[in-house]
Structure formats: structure tokens, C-alpha cells
């Protein structure tokens, strides 16, 4: 009888996996045909690979296609690895989460900062752009690495953006400092530490820190769409718009710069679940929402819905059980890493072309895996309305573009509209000095999405660049009233009002 029950159970699970795989195959066939995803996807549950597919090219110039062994820059998903390294040292009683950073780095100018503040993005530190872009603008050949951070903070001569622990604001510099802390406490270079204590321990043979492997035939090239409204692509090495990230800041490690594969990231998740990398007590702590000084949970939100933040992980608010996830973005690369803690299910998508359809691919993958509408599939099988609108705006002007948009805006069966896409296209026009077109596009954003603080912030930027200072002040004021956490917008508004 027990054998019969076991047979029925195994058969049921196998059929469920097969149904999921068919849904995913249907989805990625569409994404492949439409060229809205370029990379690898893997879905696994309880050590069983449910779906594993490669789409598109690892190298466009040589037409080399992706394989399941393609190795990608995983961007900020690297933070989960840095956080794990810190927690391993906590487990060994070499670090305490409430340790002040000055105990390890006496030169750091902010005595109240703790390890916990860095892990939870509640430090108030300036981020890498604010800290280093002024230096890079003076010296285009400058290459920044982690050793430059503390001297730069000493010369920063500004207070923290807020009292540590009082607010949540995503911060890369904090994770670069955590990598330095791992080196200080362990006595090993960061790459050596994570190779031995994380990658080797988890069986991740294809993972390493950028710059620490002479050759890797599986490593893919990162691409950017030069102009989304034209659809042309180029390697990140040739794109001047992202040079400060792809060249000047490329040597920073801790917040980014791990190279990995979908298969290795699956092993990472399985090693966490299996207790190979960290005790259950500390892992549970990492996957528990951090609280601010006032006792409320940090609530960063984001493209994938409401969430809180733990120790190196976003914690999505869902009706599906306990989840942990992180995304990553570097010039030319997108990463999505989702771990269903209660079901031991892992979903990984890696893309090396910053594909327009990446967010859609992630959401639709979740829908397919869970067999329900976790995210509203509003874009499935539809075309973007904003992309052809922007093309007309550039080629034929505002009247032709407006006529096109008004004629098709109610055709929701064939077209979708997306706030983020319109905003990014508008800012791209602005960067390409299409000021009139940018103003039209970003103004449309404020009209279509009046509850979004970001639309006013972006329109304010365009107005300011066009010399319309009074109008820009009005937009920035709306933005910061709607979202007081818009600190860059507040700084610009203060500067503009003081100039009056």
C-alpha cells in the first residue's frame, strides 16, 4: 500500500512539473521569437530542475549562442553573497551585527555606523555615484576600487543623509565596505574568502569575482540598446553613456561583480536550504524583515510588489508563503533571483542585453510556475504602445505622435502601456539631446501617471535642462511632497529655490 501511495505521489509531482515546464516553454518561445529576452532561465524545486532554457546570443559579433553554462555578471544579486560572508563571520563570533564600523576602520568619519546598518541599507551613506562621480568628472581615466572608499568618505565633508537606522535607502557603498570588513576580519582577499567558504562549499564551480579568472570561454558579453527608440545595440565597452559604471567604477566589489550561471545560483539556493553555508537560526534572521529605529519594518517596495528587507535579501509580501529574492542590474545585464523558502523552489533569469521584456519575463515566469496570476499578465502577447509613439515623436514631431497615441490608446487587446518604459524612453531622449521630444514624453508621463512621484521628478529634470526653472521647481516640489524619500530631488529643489 505504501508503495502504491508513493507511486501516486511521485506521478502527481512529475505531472505537475511537466505542466509547469509546458507553460514556461510556451512563454519563452514567445519571448525568443519577439527578441524581448536574451539570456538563460532556470526553475528548480527540491533539487529537481523543472525548466532550463537558453535564449539568444552570448556574443552578437560572433553569433555565439547561449548555453546552460553561459556565465553572466549578476549585479546586485552579489549582495546576497556578501551578506552571507558577513553572517558566516558572525556565526564564528568574529563579528557582531551591532559592532560599530569604527572598531575595524578607525579612519571612517561616521562613528555611529554599525555592521547592521550596512547590511540593511539603513546607513545614510552617500552612494557610489554621489561619492565618486565628481572625482571621475575631473579625471576621466580614474579607476575606483574598494580601497578608495574610506579616503573618499573622509574628503566628502558632509553629514550622513539621515540618522543611521531611521530610514531605508539602497546603498552600494555600504556593501563595498562590508567586503572590506570580510577581508579585515578573515585575513583573506574577498575573492579567496567567497571562493572557499561559499562557492566551493556550495559546489559552484563556475562562479568567481570579476577580475579573478584569467579566461572564461563561457563568460558572456554585455550589450545595451544604444537607442531604444531605434532598436540598435552595442557592447557596453563601446557605450560612452555607461562608461562611469562599466569602466571607472568597475573594480568595486561587494555590491556587485560576481560572475555566475543559472546552474550555480541554483546550487547556491540549495546549499542555503541544506544548511551547508549558514546555520538555520542565522539564515532565518537574514530572511526576517529588519526594523527601523521607530520599530516599523523597512518597506522598499519595487517592481515586483510590496516587500520588506532582511540581511541582504528583499522579502516580497505575497499570499504564497515566505519568499526571499534579489534583482541585479549592471550596464548590459539584468538578473532575477527568487527563492520560495517554504517550497524550496528557485527561479533564476539572467539577461545580457538589458532586454525590454526582462521584467515581463520575470513576472510571467512567476505566473507560469505558480499556475496563477501572481502578476497581472497585462503585457502578454501585446506590443508596446510607447515605443512606436517615441519613434514618431523623434521622426515626425509631437502632432503625429499624439495622433498615433490617441488613436490606439484604447486598443488594450493589442497594446500595453508601462510607466517605467515611458519614463526611461523620455530620459533617453533627454540624454540624446532631443529636448523637445523628451519634454513631450515626460509631460505625458505626469498626465498618465499623476500618482507617481517619479514622473514629476523626471519631467522636472527635463524642464531644468530646457531652462524652464520655475516649471522645474513646481515639478520637483510635487515629487518630494509625494515621496519625501526622494533625497536627490530634495537637494535639487533646495538648490533651485536658494538661487531665486
TrEMBL record:
InterPro entries: AmpC-like, Beta-lactam-related, Beta-lactam/transpept-like, Beta-lactam_class-A_AS, TPR-like_helical_dom_sf
Keyword terms, alphabetized: Membrane, Signal
One term under GO cellular component: membrane
Top-level taxon: Bacteria
Positions of the Beta-lactamase-related domain: 36-356
Xref: Pfam families: Beta-lactamase
Record localization: Membrane
Annotated signal peptide: 1-18
Record carries keyword Cell wall biogenesis/degradation: no
Name of the protein described by the UniProt record: CubicO group peptidase, beta-lactamase class C family
Origin species: Mucilaginibacter gossypiicola
